[in-house]
Structure formats: structure tokens, C-alpha cells
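W.,

You were right to be curious about this one. When I first looked at the sequence I had no strong expectations either way, so I just let the prediction run and decided to look at it fresh. Below is the sequence, 170 residues in total, followed by the output.
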Amino acid sequence: MRLVRGRLAGVSVRASFGAGMWVGITLGLVAGSILGAVLAWMAGTILGWQRDLAFTLGVARALLPLGDQVAALRWMSTNWFLVIPAVAIVVAIVAGMVGGLVGALMAAAYNRSPRHAAVIVELPDGADDPSAPAMAEADMDATSRPDRAGIRRGRGAGRRGSPRTRSPAD
């Protein structure tokens, strides 16, 4: 193996959209769960506050702030086990779409920029030979997918300093 320096010519917009979407969904589920729990707790707190205020002031609940929302607040407080996952899923969907769009926009902006990141790629020892493209095509036909640069497979992949060996089945 020998190392070759180069530059990253472009980033897949589709893959960046997918990665951004997964990050957005994950963060959205966490934030949505917290938001749903806070909403369910606040509904119960507002109902208790209204009950105490109506008793203290002697005013009908309908005249208090959020008095016409008592039924919705009571439902949210009683069915908190439905409110929390529902809010989490809605927030996750929105955050996933936003994350995907941000990822795709970042990839598109990178692809349009004149400066690109420097990368180091591992090439097999015979990469300078004229027969190297033919060997690469034979490898692709045998494995049905190309090797990924920088990922070491095979025997000795986890040991530092050991050469990468390939069997005929690879």
C-alpha cells in the first residue's frame, strides 16, 4: 500500500441529505420527547392553577385565562402517554426534513466552492502499472462493489503495521 495525496472533488448531495435527515430525526425525537413531556406537565399545572384560582377568587373557570381550553388541557394531562410520542414524532419529521435540507445545501455549497479538502488515499502497490485499470475492473467484477479508500479489510486489518493480504475470494 502506498499513500497518495489529493483533493476531494465533490460530496454526494443525496448522501448528505440522508445523513442530515438521520441526524435531524434523532435530535428531533429527543427534543420532541422533552417538549411533549413539558406540554403534558404544563397542561396539568394549568388545570391545577385554574382550580385554585377559581376557588380563591370565586370566579367561574370559563372566565379565567385558558378557561375555554379546559377540555383539551384535561385530555393532554390524562393521556400524556399518547401526547409525548405524538409530539416527538411530529418534531422528528420536521427536524429530519430541516436536517436533510441543511445537509444537502452544505454538500451543494461545498461542491460549488473553489477550495476543496485535502485527502490521503491508500492505493495498492501495483497502481502505477498500465495493467492496474484491468486489475481494478477484475476486482470490481469479482466483488460486485468497489473497495472503499481508507477502509482496511482482510487478515491483519486491525493490527498496526501488518500488510493487508487478499485471498483469491476477495
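Here's what jumped out at me. Residues 14-124 form one domain. And, maybe more interesting for your project: Residues 141-147 have pLDDT under 50 and may be disordered.

Coffee later to discuss?

I.
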